């Protein structure tokens, strides 16, 4: 009886996972084919201000919309903004959609995602993890050599639009893309298209990035890869993507590492998520700072050195 | 071929397995299933259905090529149908060469129709071709499915021509080689057919590459 129930649940979960995977590339492909209406965003008017830097934040896989950041992420960005008052931080890019459209925005299943969002706010972790699962598949789309260029092309348009509106100028310092977790993969994938569109340099900061050896690494002026001492997720990225293996000497990742484009920096005592994560405000280091303050300080010093 | 096995019975009389049973037997590389389909009056129907569906499934799995060419929805469906027909054609060329090679190896003199029934069913693993659509792991799955088809083809060749597995493997591989050589030899004809298929199904003469996306991003159209 119990065995049958467990078997049924496992089959349902496997079928659901498979369907989720098969549906994942459709948004990008439909966008590219022009089946989902307007596929090319007009560029906005350039912002008047000329900030020292424009930093576009690409959130982790828990993100549901560009309009709504997780509390931890918002707090971390507040710390970062306080350390970089002359930098414009763009917070409202949803990196897991080719059009940058949040899950709770104008979508066929928006009500479903809104329900999951409410459940997550109410403390339900099990069903709301479907948001993470959905976004993990979008990271797989970004890393796929067939779909990645299409997905990255669309996300790049969104990033370019936001950067220009924030006052980015190609003759100024590089555009900084700060990607957390899967957001780092999206950042690296979009980098060549962003550079092509803006005509300026792109600098990526990967915070615990779960990254493939993406050809986009070749388009970067530099990438700082921050890795927590106890970050299991980042380690998984090193295992599942063969291009990250040391044996793949000619992979984009290993070539970029040897060329000094990828610079790895350890974050002592930090893990990927709460508890103990890069943005966990509940953990205080020996220096008296909480984790998001330490992470913000490290990133701020990188941005100032660009 | 060996006398027909009678594993399935109904009221004391042997009956043909269903389409699903044929397919699942082929997926398990079950020799009895390959033997049954060779004798079944519906064998040809089963084999051609498998080939058509497998071709459509594989085309659906590789739909990114169609989408890169920005085909309309109508042409997309047409491409799936033509994908099925393309696999039928490819399989028939391969089966014909295996049929000829197996005779050279001294295999049983099975009819060409029997060979089509058995070896057509060997393409059953490609019914999962749609899974190639999965992001990131899709290309790896495509390779695994091809290996699975090869194993099924060796089993089918062994059954239909009564060859030992090693000789069947050589015949099957020679069949693939001969098919490749034939296509090279008649390459111009093949290219013309390919261009016609592509033009008919996608409206384009040459397939667009995914990296073209990078070039078009900088175009005035994309700049808004």
What is this structure's SSE topology?
The complex is a heterodimer of chains A (306) and B (224).
Chain A: H1 2-23, H2 26-33, E1 53-58, H3 71-83, E2 87-93, H4 110-121, H5 129-143, H6 148-165, E3 175-180, H7 182-198, E4 202-207, E5 222-228, H8 232-240, H9 252-258, E6 262-267, H10 291-305
Parallel strand pairs in A: 1-2, 1-3, 3-4, 4-5, 5-6
Helix pairs in contact in A: 3-10, 5-6, 5-7, 6-7
Chain B: E1 9-10, E2 13-14, H1 19-27, H2 31-39, H3 43-61, H4 63-68, H5 73-104, H6 112-121, H7 138-161, H8 165-185, H9 187-202, H10 212-217
Antiparallel strand pairs in B: 1-2
Helix pairs in contact in B: 1-2, 2-3, 2-6, 2-7, 3-5, 3-6, 5-6, 5-8, 5-9, 6-7, 7-8, 8-9
Entry keywords:
heterodimer, A: 306 residues, alpha/beta, 6-stranded parallel sheet, 10 helices, 44% helix, 12% strand, B: 224 residues, mainly alpha, two-stranded antiparallel sheet, 2 strands, disordered C terminus
Question: Can you describe what's shown?
Answer:
The complex is a heterodimer of chains A (about 300) and B (about 220). Chain A is an alpha/beta fold and about 300 residues long. Chain A contains ten helices and six strands. The longest helix of chain A has 22 residues, at about 1-25. The mean pLDDT of chain A is about 90. Chain B has a two-stranded antiparallel ribbon with strand order 1-2. Chain B starts with 8 loop residues before the first strand and ends in a 7-residue tail after the last helix. The interface of A and B includes residues 21, 22 and 137 of A.
Kindly report the average pLDDT value of chain A. 89
| Helical amount of chain B | 55-70%
Uncertain stretches of 5 or more adjacent residues of chain A: none
Biggest sheet layout of chain A: 6 strands, parallel
**Intertermini distance of chain A:** 62 Å
Shape designation of chain B: globular
Largest interface: A-B, 33 and 26 residues
Q: Largest sheet of chain A, order of strands side by side?
A: 2-1-3-4-5-6
- How many beta-strand segments of chain A? 6
Determine the fraction of residues in helical runs of chain A and give it as a percent range: 40-55%
Please give the oligomerization state of what you see: heterodimer
> Strand order across the biggest sheet of chain B?
1-2
Query: What percentage of amino acids of chain A are in beta strands?
Result: 5-15%
Q: What does the overall shape of chain A look like?
A: globular
Task: Provide the gyration radius of chain B in Å.
Answer: 20 Å
Mean pLDDT of chain B: 78
What is the tally of helical segments of chain A? 10
Which residues of chain B sit in consecutive blocks of at least 5 with pLDDT less than 50?
A: 1-6, 213-224
Question: Which class do the helix and strand fractions of chain A yield?
Answer: alpha/beta
Percentage of residues in DSSP E strands of chain B: under 5%
């Amino acid at each position: 009886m119990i065995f049958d129930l467990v078997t049924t649940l496992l089959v349902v979960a496997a079928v659901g996972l498979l369907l989720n995977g098969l549906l994942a590339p459709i948004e990008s492909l439909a966008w590219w084919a022009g089946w989902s209406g307007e596929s090319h965003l007009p560029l906005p008017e350039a912002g008047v201000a000329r900030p020292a830097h424009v930093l576009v934040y690409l959130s982790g896989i828990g993100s549901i919309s560009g309009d709504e950041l997780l509390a931890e992420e918002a707090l971390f960005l507040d710390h970062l903004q306080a350390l970089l008052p002359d930098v414009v931080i763009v917070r409202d890019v949803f990196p897991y959609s080719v059009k940058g459209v949040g899950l709770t925005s104008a979508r066929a299943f928006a009500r479903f995602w809104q329900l999951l969002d409410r459940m997550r706010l109410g403390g339900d972790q099990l069903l709301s993890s479907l948001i993470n699962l959905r976004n993990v598949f979008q990271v797989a789309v970004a890393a796929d050599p067939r779909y990645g260029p299409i997905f990255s092309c669309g996300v790049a348009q969104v990033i370019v639009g936001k950067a220009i509106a924030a006052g980015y100028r190609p003759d100024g310092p590089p555009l900084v893309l700060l990607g957390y977790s899967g957001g780092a993969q999206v950042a690296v994938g979009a980098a060549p298209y962003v550079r092509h569109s803006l005509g300026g340099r792109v600098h990526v900061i990967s915070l615990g990035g779960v990254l493939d050896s993406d050809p986009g690494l070749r388009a970067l002026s530099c990438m700082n890869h921050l890795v927590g001492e106890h970050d299991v997720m980042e380690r998984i990225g090193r295992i599942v993507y063969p291009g990250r293996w040391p044996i793949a000497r000619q992979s984009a990742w290993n070539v970029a590492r040897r060329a000094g484009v990828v610079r790895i920096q350890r974050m002592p005592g930090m893990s990927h998520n709460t508890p103990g994560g890069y943005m966990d405000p509940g953990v205080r280091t020996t220096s008296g700072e909480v984790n998001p303050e330490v992470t913000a300080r490290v990133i701020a010093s990188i941005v100032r050195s660009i | 071929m060996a006398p027909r096995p009678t594993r399935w019975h109904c009221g004391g009389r042997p009956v043909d397995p269903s389409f699903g049973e044929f397919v699942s037997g082929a997926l398990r590389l079950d020799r009895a299933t390959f033997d049954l389909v060779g004798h079944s009056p519906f064998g040809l129907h089963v084999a051609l259905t498998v080939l058509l569906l497998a071709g459509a499934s594989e085309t659906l799995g590789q739909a990114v090529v169609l989408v890169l060419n920005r085909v309309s929805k109508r042409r997309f469906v047409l491409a799936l149908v033509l994908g099925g027909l393309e696999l039928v054609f490819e399989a028939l060329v391969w089966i014909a060469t295996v049929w000829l090679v197996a005779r050279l190896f001294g295999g049983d003199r099975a009819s060409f129709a029997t060979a089509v029934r058995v070896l057509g069913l060997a393409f059953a693993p490609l019914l999962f071709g749609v899974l190639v659509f999965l992001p990131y792991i899709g290309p790896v799955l495509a390779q695994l499915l091809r290996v699975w088809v090869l194993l099924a083809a060796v089993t089918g060749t062994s059954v239909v021509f009564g060859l030992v597995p090693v000789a069947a493997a050589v015949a099957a591989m020679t069949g693939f080689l001969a098919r490749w050589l034939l296509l090279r030899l008649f390459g111009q004809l093949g290219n013309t057919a390919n261009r016609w298929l592509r033009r008919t199904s996608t409206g384009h003469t040459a397939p667009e590459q995914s990296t073209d996306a990078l070039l078009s991003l900088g175009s005035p159209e994309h700049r808004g």
